[in-house]
Design brief:
heterodimer; A: mainly beta; 6-stranded mixed β-sheet; 4-stranded antiparallel β-sheet; globular; B: 0% helix
Chain lengths: 111, 114
């Protein structure tokens, strides 16, 4: 079965600094990878996806993610963090067709 | 609002009672999914429909759980004889057919079993 792992429960960054939220995957075949964000008491919001093609994927709210096949990673990045980016972030992989989610990483951006 | 909607947003029930949740997907989406999310965890897949057909059920979906999607539109998830372990956020999502298509999530129904 397809799976993803998020090795960090918590990431803290200062506003204006770059941020990275890590995700590694384990799949058979070509992976369909996704990032979602969840704000308190809300459902998940889609940020971006990798299907094929360019390894750098751009998404909503200035986020991007880099697909690295040799390292089986799909890290989420943003050049300059905002306080409003503070939320719970989930990496997911499509598993024909349900999503398999990581446990989530809580991002805190401090002013 | 053209997003996925869920009703109710919150449900408190006593152990042993039955509860039913409703999900209205994005209108042109033919796939509908149910997930469960507990505190500190990512969503876990329960079941999904393509149109009115229920195509897959997770082992998490015990025989106390049943889901329907009559006419391929809205869906209901019923839990019979609720247990305290059923307390969770129940999320509904919808998508177009095709594995590259992202799923769009509703706000969830938070169930508390006392």
């Amino acid at each position: 079965a397809q799976s993803v792992a998020q090795p960090e429960d918590q990431v803290n960054v200062a506003e204006g600094n770059p941020l990275t939220v890590k995700c590694t995957y384990s799949v058979s075949g070509n992976p369909y990878l996704f990032w979602y964000v969840q704000y308190p008491n809300r459902g998940l919001q889609f940020l971006l996806k990798y299907i094929t093609g360019d390894n750098l994927v751009k998404g909503s709210y200035g986020f991007e993610a880099e697909f690295n096949k040799s390292q089986t990673s799909f890290h989420l990045k943003k050049p300059s963090a905002l306080v409003s980016d503070s939320a719970l972030y989930f990496c997911a992989v499509r598993d024909d067709p349900p999503m398999r989610f990581g446990a989530g990483t809580r991002l805190t951006v401090k002013p | 609002d053209t997003g996925v909607s869920q009703d109710p947003r919150h449900k408190i029930t006593k152990r042993g009672q039955n509860v039913t949740f409703r999900c209205d997907p994005i209108s042109e989406h033919n796939r509908l999914y149910w997930y469960r999310q507990t505190l500190g965890q990512g969503p876990e897949f329960l079941t999904y429909f393509q149109n009115e057909a229920q195509l897959e059920k997770s082992r998490l979906l015990s025989d106390r759980f049943s889901a329907e999607r009559p006419k391929g539109s809205f869906s209901t998830l019923e839990i019979q004889r609720t247990e305290q372990g059923d307390s969770a956020m129940y999320l509904c999502a919808s998508s177009l057919t095709g594995d590259s298509n992202e799923q769009y999530f509703g706000p969830g129904t938070r169930l508390t079993v006392t």
